[in-house]
Write a structure and sequence with these properties.
This protein is an alpha+beta fold. 30% of the residues lie in helices and 30% in strands. A hairpin with a 2-residue loop joins strand 1 and strand 2. Helix 1 runs parallel beside helix 2, helix 6 packs across helix 9 and helix 15 runs antiparallel to helix 16. The longest helix is centred in the first third of the chain and has 29 residues. It comes from [Clostridium] fimetarium.
Length: 694
Amino acid sequence: MFKSFSMELAGRTLTVDVGRVAAQANGAVFMHYGDTVVLSTATASVKPREGIDFFPLSVEYEEKLYSVGRIPGGFNKREGKASENSVLTSRVIDRPMRPLFPHDYRNDVTLDNLVMSVDPDCSPELTAMLGSAIATSISDIPFDGPCSTTIVGLVDGEFVINPNAAQRAVSDLVLTVASTADKVVMIEASANEVTEDKMIEAIFAADDMNKKVITFINTIVAECGKEKHTYTSCAVPAELFAKMKEIVTPAEMEVAVFSDEKQVRENNIREITKKFEEAFADNKEWLEVLDEAIYQYQKKTVRKMILKDHKRPDGRAITEMRALSAEIDLLPRVHGSGMFTRGQTQILAIATLAPLSEAQRIDGLDSAETSKRYMHHYNFPSYSVGETRPSRGPGRREIGHGALSEKALMPVLPSTEEFPYAIRTVSETMESNGSTSQASICACTLALMAAGVPIKKPVAGISTGLVTGDTDDDYIVLTDIQGLEDFFGDMDFKVAGTHDGITAIQLDMKIHGLTRPIIEEAIRKTKLAREIILTDVMEPVIAVARAEVGKYAPKIIQIKIDPAKIGEVVGQRGKTINAIIEATGVKIDITDDGAVSVCGVDQESMDKALGYIKTITTDLLEGMEIEGNVISIKEFGAFIEFAPGKEGMVHISKISKDRVEHVEDVLSIGQHVRCVCLGKDKMGRTSYSIKDVK
């Protein structure tokens, strides 16, 4: 039965249609936010997937270009692989939803969001986030929701809930917060050095709005919600746990995981696994869940050590960071390189500079952003964790980590007027044992400064973890979590920023949410750690960007010309600009506002190209002198080329102070001459003289 529900959300109407389309999905809602329309569905398999020890959740965010009235480019004229924005949106939907499904649920679940119409003032990403939560809540799929998501902007110092396109364009903050009725379950932020206090205030402004939306969602669930289906639990049998503790005591397991060397711990667990496999060789049922049981045993051990005994697996104090180091210029021929090491996490970052014409073109739904001049790419090879597998290109995790580092550094990059380059940084993971994304931010900062990119301030990132007990006030926040603490802990709270404020946040949760005291403590601890990283580790290596780009980087000189003169520089079908490029070997970019960038490695060639452009765009006045080459000789005079596409004629009477019978007697093709402008004649033609040069 078709039912429709509406509420006013940040000055626009949010409408949820249930039963209108996609009736065969477990749950489906046709979402309208302003003129944005998204179909959100939730489906689950009837039976659990066999042979897995994780919850198989898939989240899709599908951008259809018909939603903005465009036909896809390319030969096939249809949408191809998911865009980067689609991948990042899918991850933001996944992160708050995943912890709210039962931990022992192994049925395949797919949350699909189809963007069908886009109103620039009503975010389709936000609409999909709400749609997935509502579709799952009204479905028969086990889910401990609902949850809601709100976006907060900061315009002229004031918070804006779910900002429109104009507000987003000038906002100092893009904060996405997901909450249940009780707690915050996900935070994602990019910020222009927003202070910690302001960020905390913004997070809970979003949380307050989420509570209002959840009240609305509950009315939909009350009328349209299905009874949740039963499922086959994949929980480890209690009898198995009891037997395992007889074979390997909790004290022995604690010794096995207590080491600051990842390889040592892994070898210890391999030996323990062999003991269990030998002991349970005749029990097929137990062997099938043994990996999960060992995971749970380690998890209980590590959590007890941290929460009750205040002991971390590598022996550090709760607020202590691992050994830190930084260095630059490891790679001699690249434009800039920097390496940052934190314990067994190590990132080598490389910065590459190029003309603005090499900025990335974006073919997405947001018409406000068609290109980006800063790109960060993150690579995570198998050798970084001592494993072997073929490289198949970046997955969603790599794309997400790259985007997070990119987001963290964007606020400190110079404008194109200050630094007219396209910039790419690449993070190569040399070694991984927790929070490589934050090490990437540190390494990229080093590489950018080493490359001579005049960033406003250095940026550092750090992650905190969490272990909780049975009550909300029984918890410990850990500074600088390593892989084991992330794996067995309850959160990965990443915060990046400068000395003066936060530039990016990403929170991943494994429990049903965080209270305000936990969030405040995590943000405070990352601030303290960030100060140490910047002051004691990074700034002693390089505190400010080098004054010039490296000798192997392209040099770029930028000038401004009258936009009305752009056509003269380009010439018919690009003839003039291509002639300049061929003559000098430089690259030339021209923007619509008349900004001309000349890029090359040889200063003389660049100066020559700039001279041509200035000559072409300068209106010569009577008495001004100019140089050029003879390109044509006629009976009545000679034609001089001052720059590609700009010529002038010297009459035979103006070649020499002596009488000239034949032009060839004085001038030859290719000869370099200096002329003076005589102004325009009655026909409007400009003439020149060689003999009148002073």
